[in-house]
């Protein structure tokens, strides 16, 4: 199952993986499915109460498969093209080719489509028939569906989910229109080639589903339905382009990660469609009992978000707005546990209430609340978007998180420090521990950000927040010069996944290079090799920080055991268990490239850089680094860094930038003017001069 023509963004195979979970997904911000599957999902459409909440299965007309009639076995190929956002299945038979193309339209987010094209290859005049095999039935175990009248040639069903997430809460409504699908298609004897196009529109209102279906029909009539999708998708890929000179497997993994993660985010022109977050297995997965049932975890905020923020801050904002919309549910979570403020759920669906089916995680894995706020902080430092906080609910969330952390702490007379007791750290092999280093450090960061944000918004600054941030305990072993994972941790104890190493990145908790090294040395050998895929990326980032490039590479290559062939679908655990299409692992992998190789670090006053490449990497080009309203093309080799501002926002006006090296050299960054300098540590910051 080799990849075609050496193109790292096109994955080809002559046979499908035996495990259907490893089939590729086609997804946009609102709809998603796995190829050849008879169900799809709509964003935010959950059924089931509390811990039983799962993505509602919507019957999918898209899950058919072509077959050639007759006894012979024609040659088949299957292709995922990440440049066009399209999956295709081709049958090569004597005398003709039949091609099935499937995609989720990137800009018309309520529309999915497929086409069947039959092309005659010889001079024959006989009809050519292709069978369409489908298991589609317009019924669902999660929806009470009712047939409605046909609309513009499409069949129509609509209905509500069966069980609300919270008692008395809303039950989302689904409306679906689809082009009727025959059992076969025939190319007439006089025809050389013909293409049939089939649409499926799904929305939460009759008006929207009809509008979307009609828009699709208009594009079909103009012969531009697929082209309009490819154009929108290609623009996204161009705006989020990341290229590197390195091993083919690494470049394929990069393009696979970009395809699956970018598929999950909203297009720029869809403000009317609220965003519903990103679950570890993405929108295509999450039926009952599968991929954490489509719930949203810290995976979104900690592992996926930083990449999206760097490349596409508008989509990052949509992710934060999902958290703002669920703030009231988070307040209820805190209240029910006897605390103030807002406690974000370990597993979130539509309301922000805790929907984890196992109580221990929802009660104890409270670091997620700080993880959510760290995403807000990174966004603010990168964009200075005060409107999100002043007008769109962001400040209320910041304040509520700070209040939660203060109420969750207790004062230790013995240590004269604040403690947070009875938690589960990111390392889920341990529970009911006191003073998790990661949990307490992220709580401290939450309180510091809340204080800074209050000052920026000219609001009263809480002395309590400042006091708690100064006096919270973050465990540290003075003798061994490392951070114990929690009070009483014994060196050598098995750890499930990246935990303390996250203090260095992304938390950037203050520590010396010696302590950073000791944390990596202490936890690398005791981290479970069967743990989740994102872990090794954080060890890789740590070693790159210390300029141990080959140690970093040895950690990064561990990720490849989680990448399945031929479509680069990630599995959570290397034995194939856990979530599939594991966007969390992909997010960690992308952070190695976007933050590890570049040394990018988001701070309050600048975007730091300090590149480090393993020996197999010669060059990295990121075409659209977003910072303070500017888009920069950044190209890095071992010898040289080249930067160019390619675009600046006009409303609000972008801040003029400069690159400043540690040596003190300054390079103004003006739109359309490329600057280069020897590869060295430095930062991008607001320019001290105003004119070129």
TrEMBL record:
GO terms for molecular function: protein-glucosylgalactosylhydroxylysine glucosidase activity. The keyword Transferase does not apply. InterPro entries: 6-hairpin_glycosidase_sf, 6hp_glycosidase-like_sf, Glyco_hydro_65_M. GO terms for biological process: carbohydrate metabolic process. Keywords: Glycosidase, Hydrolase. It is an enzyme of class 3 (hydrolase). One of its GO terms (cellular component) is cytosol. Gene3D superfamilies: 1.50.10.10, Maltose phosphorylase, domain 3. Catalyzes the hydrolysis of glucose from the disaccharide unit linked to hydroxylysine residues of collagen and collagen-like proteins. Belongs to the glycosyl hydrolase 65 family. This is Protein-glucosylgalactosylhydroxylysine glucosidase. The lineage of its organism: Eukaryota, Metazoa, Chordata, Craniata, Vertebrata.
